[in-house]
What does this fold into?
Amino acid sequence: KAGVTQTPRYLIKTRGQQVTLSCSPISGHRSVSWYQQTPGQGLQFLFEYFSETQRNKGNFPGRFSGRQFSNSRSEMNVSTLELGDSALYLCASSLTGREFYNEQFFGPGTRLTVL
Amino acid sequence: KNQVEQSPQSLIILEGKNCTLQCNYTVSPFSNLRWYKQDTGRGPVSLTIMTFSENTKSNGRYTATLDADTKQSSLHITASQLSDSASYICVVSFSNDMRFGAGTRLTVKP
It folds into this structure.
């Protein structure tokens, strides 16, 4: 069974630009969660999608948005990039949701660098 | 405030030695606690998951313990190997949310 895939793996952007990251969950998984990981803040929850609906949202500005498609693939978008957005963005999929007993499976992440 | 704190922040041990990582939380109401291993540049991989009624869970050389009364968990690594060098993250779920610890960076030296 294929794992969670994320594209691209690495990305370099400049301040003010926007970026779109993609995540394909494990087949059959309907929940996709996005996280930002930085050395100073650790892992921080961005949002969770389940069956194309945003179910939970972390404490991030509106510049961070996402969506989920009918095939459960998900994208997240960051507009008007800031230097502080440089981070590893991780996607995790699970059968029914991140808050239940079901395990979350993480992708390899997308390393975003904002110059 | 719902928080998860891990200690130590970093740890260096020699190959073959044992070590114990700590996780204290103030999350309530508690749902479950997970330990993840994250290799540099890769996504976290689950090691163990424990609910309120479980106080020990093993996965090979990794053994996690949970004391729900004192809100403490530990991850014990036995006979460490070079491949154990990674960050270990404690995650506590509660209600409809979860909190991540900052992680412990473990380095195993030959």
Chain A touches chain B at residues 4, 42-45, 56, 88, 90, 92, 98-99, 101, 103-109, 111 (CB under 8 Å). The mean pLDDT of chain A is 92.
